[in-house]
C-alpha cells in the first residue's frame, strides 16, 4: 500500500485558495515574489516570456514561474490584455509577526472588463464590461424573435448604460461599445455564440444571477433607491436584469467601493440615427479590418482630454436625430471659429486637465495616490478660467455649460493645505503631507530631520573629550548607529563604550546616548509614516462627497473638448456648416471624402462631387462607371457627410442642405462571413435584405455592386429587382446605387425617380484617365482590362483579353438582356404548337393563369420562365423518344 503524498503547507494553502478561483490565473505572493504554479505557470510563462522552472511538492514536480512583486504593474496588464482573469493573492500579515505559515487571501480579481490599472486602460477609450440577458423564449429556437437585454459598465469612469431590443440591435451596440468582457448565463453559451459570434472575451455566470428580483435588489441597494423609475429604465425588464448581473460581477471580483457608480442610463434607441453593424463596419468609423487603415475617428479626433476622446467616440457611434440639439452644437462651433482667442484659451486650459472621470473613480475605489490627488486639484483649477470664458460668451449653449461647471473651491483648498505640491506616487514613500498642516507631524519630522545636526554635535563633543581625531558615527541595518575607532586610537576609548564589532583596521562601539537617540529617530519615522497614511486616508474619505460635482465637470469639459475638436477640424480642413430644414432632401455641393482627402499628397487635390437626392424627382441615383473610378468613395463620403452633420460637426463640402436622416444603410465592399459558413453572395443578400426590411422615408441607402457575387444574369436581375423595390416602396427612401451593370441604365425609361449618373473617364490613345467626377448619364464601358493592366498583369494576358473582348462585343449587342427576355417570351408562345390536351401543359396553363403579373418582380419572372422552359423541353424530349 503506497503512502499518501505529502503536500507542503505552502502548497496546501495555495490549493485551498486556487479551488475558489478555478477560472482565474492565481498570482500567489511568496516573500518578494508573485508565484504561479502548475497550469497557471505554463500559461504565465508563455504570455510574459518568463522562465518556467519546477519545484518538489511532496515527491512530485510542480511547474513554477514568478516575478518580483514590485513588477506587478509591468506584468499584470500583459496577462489581462491576453484575456486572462487574474486573482491577486497577497500576504495578509507581516511574516515577522507569525511563527506559522503567513495568512494569504485574494485581495483583487482583475479581468479584462474590470480593470483600474492605468497600464491596462487606454486613455481615450472606455473599458466596458458588458452583460447580456436573453429574454424568455417565445417558441423560437434562436434569439431573433426575443428581446435581449444589455448593459455596459465602466468601473474606471463610473459610466453605466443599459438597453434592450432584438438581436440585430444588441449586436450593433456590442460593436459600437466594443466591451473588453461580456457576461452571460452559463446555459446560454451556444445561443450567445450563434447570435453574436466568438470574438469577445466572455465569462459565464450562474443562471440565478439573471433574475428580475435579484437585479432590482442589487441596483436599488447600489443607488440607495426604492425604485428604478427615476432612471427611466424600470420598463426595460431584460435591460435591468443585464444591469444587475454586471453589478453583481463587480462584487464577485472583490470590487466593493463603488460610490462613483451613481446612476444607470438608458441608451434611447429612438434618439439616435440607426446604423446597423454592417454600416458601422463598412464606413470604418473607428476600427478597420485592414492593417494600418485610417478611420474617420483618426481624421477628425482633435480632442485634448481623455474624457473628450471617449465622448467623441460615443457621439460618432450615436449620431443625433434631434435637429435642435444638432443646431446648438453647430452654433458653438460657429462661435468658436469667429472667437479665435476664446478657442485658444479654452484649449490651453483643457490641456492642463487630467482624466477627471478616472481620478474621481480612484477616489471612490480607494486606489488614488497623493500625486493623483494633486493632479485632480490642478485639473479643477484649470476649470476656473474655462468657466469664466464660457459664462461670458455670447453663445447660449456655452453660457449654460459655464453656469453648470463647478469650481469646487473648498475641495481645491483642502487638498492644497493637506498635501505637498510635489507629492509622491506612493503614500508609503513619505513627505506627502504639507508642512504646517499637522503640528505633531511637523514635530516628529524635526526630530527625524534634525538628527544629522545632533550627530555632528555629538561627534565634535566626543572627539574633544577622547582626543581621537578620526572618530566616525555611522549606521547599518544590523547594529543601528555606532561609533567607529581606528585601531591606532583604540587605547583612548572610554570604558563606558560597548564594543559591538571588530574589523581589520577598526573597532565599532555603541553608547547609551546613541541607543536612546536611535530609538527616538526610528520611533519618529514609524510614527511619521503611520500619521501620513492616516491623514491621507481621511482626506480621500472626505473627498467622496465631491464625486457628483467632479463627474459633472468631467462630462461638461468632455463636451467642450469635442466642440473645440470640431472647430479645429473645420478650420484646418476647410469644413462648412450644414443647414438643416424640415424637408427630406439631401443636397451636397462639392462634397469630399474626409478620410481620402487627408491621405492624398499635398499637390493632388481631392475631386469634389455634387449629390442631390429627394423623394419626389431624384430619389435613386444609379452610378455607373469602371472599377477604381471612385464610385465607392462617392457613396462612402455621402454617408460620412450626413453622419458628421448629425454628430454636430461641420462637413467637408462647399455647402450642404439636408433634412434629418433617421437611418443610414450601406452595402459597400465585400464583407465575407465565410468563417461562419456563408459565401460572399449570401452575406451580401443578408445585408441587403436587412436594409429592404427596415427602410423609412428619412433613410439614406447606399448600395455598391449588388449582385456581383453571382452570375451576370442573376446579378442584373437582382440589382434591377432591388432598385424597382426601392422605387416602388411607399417610403421613397433616398438611394445611391453604384453598379457596373450598364443594363440597369434602362430603368430610367420606366421609373421616373431613378436618374443615371456616371463617374467620368477620359479615353486616351492607349490609356484611360479616371476623372473621378460624377456627371449625368449612364456609362457603357467597364475598363476592367485597363484596371488589370494597372495592377501589373502580364502584357500577354492583357493582349489576349483585348482580343476576346472585341470578339464578344461583335457577337453580343448592348441590348442582349432584352433580346434574351424576348427569346424566352417567343419560346413561351410556342406552346400553341403542342397538344393543349397534354396533362403537363394543362398543369402549366393553370400555373400561368394564377400568376399575379402586377406583383411579379423581374427576377421572379425570369425564374418562372426558365422553369417552364425546362418543363417544355423535357416534355418534347419524352415525345421524341416515343
Automatic annotation (TrEMBL):
One Pfam short name: MutS_III
Entry GO CC: cytosol
Function per UniProt: This protein is involved in the repair of mismatches in DNA. It is possible that it carries out the mismatch recognition step. This protein has a weak ATPase activity.
Protein name: DNA mismatch repair protein MutS
InterPro entries per the UniProt record, alphabetical: DNA_mismatch_repair_MutS (IPR005748), DNA_mismatch_repair_MutS-lik_N (IPR007695), DNA_mismatch_repair_MutS/MSH (IPR017261), DNA_mismatch_repair_MutS_C (IPR000432), DNA_mismatch_repair_MutS_clamp (IPR007861), DNA_mismatch_repair_MutS_core (IPR007696), DNA_mismatch_repair_MutS_N (IPR016151), DNA_mismatch_repair_MutS_sf (IPR036187)
Residues that bind ATP: 625-632
SUPFAM superfamilies assigned: DNA repair protein MutS, domain I, DNA repair protein MutS, domain II, DNA repair protein MutS, domain III, P-loop containing nucleoside triphosphate hydrolases
Residue ranges occupied by any DNA mismatch repair proteins mutS family domain in the UniProt entry: 699-715
GO biological process, one term: mismatch repair
Top-rank lineage group of the source organism: Bacteria
Native organism: Patiriisocius marinus
One of the record's GO molecular function terms: damaged DNA binding
Alphabetically ordered keywords of this record: ATP-binding, DNA damage, DNA repair, DNA-binding, Nucleotide-binding
Membership in a protein family: Belongs to the DNA mismatch repair MutS family.
Amino acid at each position: 500500500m503506497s503512502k499518501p503524498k505529502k503536500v507542503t503547507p505552502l502548497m496546501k494553502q495555495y490549493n485551498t485558495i486556487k479551488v475558489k478561483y478555478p477560472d482565474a490565473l492565481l498570482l500567489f505572493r511568496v516573500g518578494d515574489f508573485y508565484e504561479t504554479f502548475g497550469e497557471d505557470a505554463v500559461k504565465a510563462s508563455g504570455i510574459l516570456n518568463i522562465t518556467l522552472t519546477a519545484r518538489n511538492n511532496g515527491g512530485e514536480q510542480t511547474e513554477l514561474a514568478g516575478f518580483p512583486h514590485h513588477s506587478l504593474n509591468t506584468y499584470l496588464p500583459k496577462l489581462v490584455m491576453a484575456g486572462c482573469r487574474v486573482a491577486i493573492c497577497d500576504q495578509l500579515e507581516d511574516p515577522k509577526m507569525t511563527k506559522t505559515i503567513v495568512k494569504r487571501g485574494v485581495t483583487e480579481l482583475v479581468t479584462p472588463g474590470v480593470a483600474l490599472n492605468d497600464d491596462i486602460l487606454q486613455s481615450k477609450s472606455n473599458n466596458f464590461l458588458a452583460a447580456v440577458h436573453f429574454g424568455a423564449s417565445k417558441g423560437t429556437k434562436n434569439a431573433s424573435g426575443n428581446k435581449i437585454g444589455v448593459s455596459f459598465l465602466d468601473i474606471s469612469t463610473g459610466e453605466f448604460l443599459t438597453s434592450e431590443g432584438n438581436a440585430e440591435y444588441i449586436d450593433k451596440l456590442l460593436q459600437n461599445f466594443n466591451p473588453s468582457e461580456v457576461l452571460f448565463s452559463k446555459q446560454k453559451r451556444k445561443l450567445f455564440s450563434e447570435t453574436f459570434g466568438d470574438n469577445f472575451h466572455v465569462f459565464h455566470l450562474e443562471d440565478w444571477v439573471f433574475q428580475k428580483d435579484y437585479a432590482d435588489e442589487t441596483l436599488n441597494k447600489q443607488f440607495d433607491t426604492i425604485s428604478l423609475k427615476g432612471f427611466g429604465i424600470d420598463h426595460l425588464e431584460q435591460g435591468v436584469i443585464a444591469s444587475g448581473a454586471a453589478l453583481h460581477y463587480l462584487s464577485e471580483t472583490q470590487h466593493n467601493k463603488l460610490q462613483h457608480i451613481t446612476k444607470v442610463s438608458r441608451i434611447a434607441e429612438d434618439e439616435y440615427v440607426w446604423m446597423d453593424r454592417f454600416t458601422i463596419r463598412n464606413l470604418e468609423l473607428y476600427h478597420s479590418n485592414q492593417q494600418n487603415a485610417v478611420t474617420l475617428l483618426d481624421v477628425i479626433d482633435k480632442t485634448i482630454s481623455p474624457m473628450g476622446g471617449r465622448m467623441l467616440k460615443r457621439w460618432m457611434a450615436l449620431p443625433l436625430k434631434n435637429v435642435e440639439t444638432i443646431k446648438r452644437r453647430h452654433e458653438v462651433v460657429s462661435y468658436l471659429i469667429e472667437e479665435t482667442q476664446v478657442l485658444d484659451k479654452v484649449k490651453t486650459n483643457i490641456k492642463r486637465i487630467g482624466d477627471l472621470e478616472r481620478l474621481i473613480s480612484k477616489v471612490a475605489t480607494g486606489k488614488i495616490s497623493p500625486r493623483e490627488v494633486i493632479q485632480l486639484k490642478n485639473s479643477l483649477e484649470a476649470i476656473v478660467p474655462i468657466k469664466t470664458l464660457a459664462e461670458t460668451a455670447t453663445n447660449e449653449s456655452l453660457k449654460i455649460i459655464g453656469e453648470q461647471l463647478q469650481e469646487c473651491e473648498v475641495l481645491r483648498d483642502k487638498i492644497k493645505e493637506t498635501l505637498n505640491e510635489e507629492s509622491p506616487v506612493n503614500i508609503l514613500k513619505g513627505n506627502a503631507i504639507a508642512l504646517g498642516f499637522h503640528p505633531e507631524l511637523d514635530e516628529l519630522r524635526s526630530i527625524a530631520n534634525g538628527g544629522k545636526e545632533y550627530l555632528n554635535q555629538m561627534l565634535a563633543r566626543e572627539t574633544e573629550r577622547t582626543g581621537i581625531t578620526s572618530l566616525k558615527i555611522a549606521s547599518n541595518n544590523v547594529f543601528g548607529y555606532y561609533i567607529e575607532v581606528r585601531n591606532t586610537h583604540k587605547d583612548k576609548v572610554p570604558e563606558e563604550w560597548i564594543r559591538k564589532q571588530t574589523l581589520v583596521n577598526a573597532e565599532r562601539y555603541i553608547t547609551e546616548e546613541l541607543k536612546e537617540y536611535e530609538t527616538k529617530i526610528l520611533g519618529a519615522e514609524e510614527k511619521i509614516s503611520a500619521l501620513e497614511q492616516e491623514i491621507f486616508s481621511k482626506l480621500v474619505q472626505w473627498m467622496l462627497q465631491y464625486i457628483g460635482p467632479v463627474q459633472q465637470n468631467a462630462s461638461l469639459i468632455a463636451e467642450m473638448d469635442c466642440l473645440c475638436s470640431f472647430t479645429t477640424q473645420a478650420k484646418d480642413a476647410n469644413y462648412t456648416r450644414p443647414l438643416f430644414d424640415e424637408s427630406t432632401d439631401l443636397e451636397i455641393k462639392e462634397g469630399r471624402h474626409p478620410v481620402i482627402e487627408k491621405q492624398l499628397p499635398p499637390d493632388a487635390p481631392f475631386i469634389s462631387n455634387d449629390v442631390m437626392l429627394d423623394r419626389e424627382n431624384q430619389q435613386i441615383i444609379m452610378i455607373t462607371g469602371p472599377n477604381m473610378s471612385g464610385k465607392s468613395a462617392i457613396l462612402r463620403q455621402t454617408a460620412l457627410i450626413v453622419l458628421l452633420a448629425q454628430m454636430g460637426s461641420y462637413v467637408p463640402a462647399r455647402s450642404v442642405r439636408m433634412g434629418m436622416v433617421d437611418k443610414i444603410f450601406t452595402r459597400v465592399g465585400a464583407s465575407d462571413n465565410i468563417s461562419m459558413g456563408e459565401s460572399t453572395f449570401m452575406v451580401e443578400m443578408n445585408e441587403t435584405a436587412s436594409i429592404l426590411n427596415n427602410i423609412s422615408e428619412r433613410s439614406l441607402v447606399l448600395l455598391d455592386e449588388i449582385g456581383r457575387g453571382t452570375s451576370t444574369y442573376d446579378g442584373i436581375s437582382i440589382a434591377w429587382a432591388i432598385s424597382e423595390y426601392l422605387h416602388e416602396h411607399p417610403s421613397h427612401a433616398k438611394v445611391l446605387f453604384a453598379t457596373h451593370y450598364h443594363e440597369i441604365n434602362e430603368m430610367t425609361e420606366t421609373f421616373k425617380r431613378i436618374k443615371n449618373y456616371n463617374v467620368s473617364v477620359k479615353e486616351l490613345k492607349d490609356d484611360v484617365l479616371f476623372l473621378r467626377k460624377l456627371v449625368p448619364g449612364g456609362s457603357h464601358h467597364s475598363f476592367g482590362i485597363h484596371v488589370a493592366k494597372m495592377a501589373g498583369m502580364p502584357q500577354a494576358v492583357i493582349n489576349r483579353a483585348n482580343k476576346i473582348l472585341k470578339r464578344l462585343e461583335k457577337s453580343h449587342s448592348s441590348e442582349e438582356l432584352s433580346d434574351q427576355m424576348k427569346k424566352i417570351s417567343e419560346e413561351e408562345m410556342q406552346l400553341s404548337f403542342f397538344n393543349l390536351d397534354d396533362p403537363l401543359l394543362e398543369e402549366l396553363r393553370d400555373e400561368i393563369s394564377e400568376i399575379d403579373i402586377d406583383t411579379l418582380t423581374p427576377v421572379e419572372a425570369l425564374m418562372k420562365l426558365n422553369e417552364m422552359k425546362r418543363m417544355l423541353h423535357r416534355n418534347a424530349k419524352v415525345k421524341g423518344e416515343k
